[in-house]
Amino acid sequence: MQRRDFLRAAAALAGLPLLSGCRQLLGWGLPIEVLRPGMADGHRLRDSAALPPPRSERRVDTVIVGSGVAGLFAGWRLAREGYRDFVLLNGPEPDGNAAAGAFDGWRYPTGAHYLPLPSPESGHVRELLAEMGVIEAGGDSLRPTFDERVLVHAPDERLWRDGQWQDGLLPRGLGADDDAQQRRFLLHVKQLQQQHGADGRRVFTVPTALASTDPAWRALDGQSFAAWLAAHGYTAPGLLWYLDYCCRDDYGSTLAHTSAWAGLHYFAARGGQAANAADGAVLTWPDGLNPLLRHMRVRIGAERQLPGAAWRIQMQGRQVQVDYVDAGGAQRLLARRVIVATPLHVAWHLLPQLAGLGFSRAHLPPRAPWLVGNVLLDRFPKEPATSPLAWDNVVYGSASLGYVVATHQLIRAALPERTVFTTYHALAADDPATARQWLAGASADELFGQAMQDLYTVYGARLRRQLLAARLTVRAHAMASPQPGFLANAGLAALRAADGPILFAHADLSGLSLFEEAAWWGDVAARRVLG
Amino acid sequence: MRDRLLILSVFVVASCGLAYELIAGALASYLLGDSVLQFSSIIGCYLFAMGVGSHLSQYVKDERVLDTFIEIELLVALLGGLSASSLFAVFAWSGESFRLTLYALVFLTGAMVGMEIPLVMRALNQRQQRFAELVSRVLTFDYLGALAVSLLFPIVLAPRLGLARSALLFGLSNVAVALWTCRVFRGELLRPTLQYLRSLLVLLVLGGGFIAADELTHWNEKAIYGDDVIHAETTPYQRLVLTRWKGDLRLYINGNLQFSSRDEHRYHEALVHPVLAKLPWARRVLILGGGDGLAAREVLKYPNVREVTLVDLDPAMTGLFARSAPLVALNGGALRNPRLRVVNDDAARWLERNGDVFDAIIVDFPDPSSFALGKLYSVPLYRLLSRHLADNGLAVVQSTSPYHAPRSYWSINATLRAAGLATTPYHAYVPSFGEWGFIIAAHRPGYTPPQAYRVPLTFLDREATRQMFFFPPDMRPWRVAPNQLNDQRLVHYFEQDWSQVIR
Q1: Taking the model in full, what pTM does it have?
Q2: Distance of CA A355 to the CA centre of its chain
Q3: Are residues B214 and B245 in the same domain?
Q4: pLDDT lower than 70: segments of chain A
Q5: Closest to B485 (Cβ–Cβ): which among A151, A413, A465?
Q6: Contact state of A153 with B375 under an 8 Å Cβ cutoff
Q7: Chain segment A315-336, per-residue pLDDT in tens
Q8: CB spacing of A153 vs B289 below 8 angstroms
Q9: Chain B residues within an 8 Å CB radius of A276
């Protein structure tokens, strides 16, 4: 029996209906809402229920299926180039991994929450940021000037270790050997940032499509990051915890299950700079990356965005037929070209002919499950005078990923009266299937306990008294994890090259889940449509 | 008749018992916050202690029941009656032991109160009352007393008398019950005279306390501020304390001096007039911060100003400075002036949401002593500000001290420039603060200090103004970086600057 059930039963037995009203007063039974975006539609699609005949049929030049970063970026590009004959199917998970929510106007992310400063290779992202006014000047230069409201404000990061906070996320004070290895590693990846392959391209870039294909460097993908680190003498526990944290944070996988190429990519591919911020700064909004998506939606126009989830995409003569379901029932679109901007495990069920394109089930990238918690606090918790609340707060040694403060970027004369903390947890410890089973079966209390792990470590259980509401977002197939060998995935290569009536756009094509990658494939697909 | 009196005393005793519990709970939530926790834990502790008291009551010998009842009443009167005052004192003088004192006091009072009803019941039982009737009557009055106080306390007593006096009043009621019992049961007491004397003594102590309660509270705050406290208030945003010492009125916010009436005219004249004297056409003026109305007082000296908008977060602050007689005398009733509009909102949020444009903007924000406050001295905020500034308007920013905090001061100057504003730095000597700095910002360069003033001033004249804009060699500009939100150098500068100044 769960705590809440027990309390309810006890209240009923004691004949004290009032007690249930007091539960909140006593700190029990906080309103916990569990969101499972896309789960019901996705599983219905997987289980392949038959679709009734469509009630409407509409012809359009291009259909974009899915409204995550890739789909919206494709739509943004089309609209920006003056191309109007297209529609975008929102799908069951609007905004995908960049979705957001709000408690009474206090906005928060339910997915990705920051964007690193875009490197010169990420011209497509810079273009979007410049249009939004986030890049104020120098969009083509090495160091553009960014809107300071969006550059993460100080203090940006801190690490909780042994009951106190340290600045930054690299653990300090773990001994001379750890410090030396940390310095050596940072120097090592700094060199790799400038490393070029035999083809003259940088070895590590965002987007990965522009990276060197020199097999000598690609060989890194043959081993795990853990193995690579061991082979290079990186054994210090503090450094290894930090690198493991980074892999879980970006890829949802542990060191042992991350490709060495991807692990190094995390450190060596970024390198965007700003005229008005330190290197390594990031861009963030109260509701994570959602404002980028809202901007793209405005450019696309509300009239081109259709509610509804795709059900089947197939060739019908020279046209592509997209069957989908909305509140009115089954509908059909007939298009010259379709950009499939869904995750590939969804595309697998949408497109019966995927195998014909050289993509088999074995090519589906493994997907990491995530749990994102958002809690509304009635005031800011007490912080030690020497280490004020940072934007990103991480617990050393934790299997979770810490918490981010949604109100951090607000400029206010006094502390905002409320705040939202967003906790992140990648279920990387178990294999994804086991983790998904747990997520599917766990009660709201169990999920809440998991989501609150780091907050309770830092503030103690008394923090519960400050919570007004909690919303948990279960993303059981959140992102592709770049396991060793992911670069050699021939199925992905086939979809990346597809330039027929059916095009693909998703971060999955890169095998790792980054905004820049998703946007890149959206851009590529849109440019193919534009010709 | 005697039995009825005893039953009536149950009513009083029950009222007092609940009152002490409520007072302790209210006081703890007031001083420590988190009212749910405070009330829950205090009620729990109190009820448990009452159980302990009831248990102990069996050890009172039958012949001593009435004597003990009187003694308990007096003890409750002292403990409960002085509870609020003594807890305030402990909080003011030694914060650490507050919780311990609180719970010890609650436990002792609870234990004493727990003994009262069992003793009364035994006293009545000795008088051959029928048991069923006895229990029914005692408990009826017990609960009635609780009801009376639970309504009286929040509606009448706490708001009218305050916590310290309410507690003393209930203590006096306990003494009254004791005196009354002494009188009515004189013959049955073992040592009636002694009990009488004791009761009178406690009456004297509590009565004196009741009269001196205000003094006591002031004395506690004086321990903190050094001067006489004439007003103290905890608002949802800050603690406001107003002190007076020989005509010098001072305002402290969260313990930091905001102004002294001796020299605030220097600060506020320097803040306002170099801008307004240059804008004879100014009609609309915006003041950010400055809920004391002192900057507004200076602004309102100009008849050309038609509309002053003052944005200050705390309605308690602007309310206090609009009502309290000595403060209204100080700010010349500025906050009640029909030309002035008070907006109680966060100034930065208001700037984001409001689209009005002003001829002059006076920015009087707190010093950049934390990352949160440092954001008020940033390029985005100054850009926002410049969007509210008329094309030929002027803004002035309180900018810390160019003498004591040169890095901070010149960093604020650099930040204003980075936001695309033309700046003119200046400074004035304010004895309470030391050498203090301000910066005038405009859309275009070319500001020159005023040569004369059209309004009556005490500090500024032509020569004083000239000196304000002159920076002697020991106050020359420092080469420092603007404050970028990404690293908030200003907050580090400010810390660095003041760590080198002994104040």
Answers
A1: 0.77
A2: 28
A3: no
A4: 1-29
A5: A151
A6: yes
A7: 999 999 999 999 999 999 999 9
A8: no
A9: 379, 484, 486
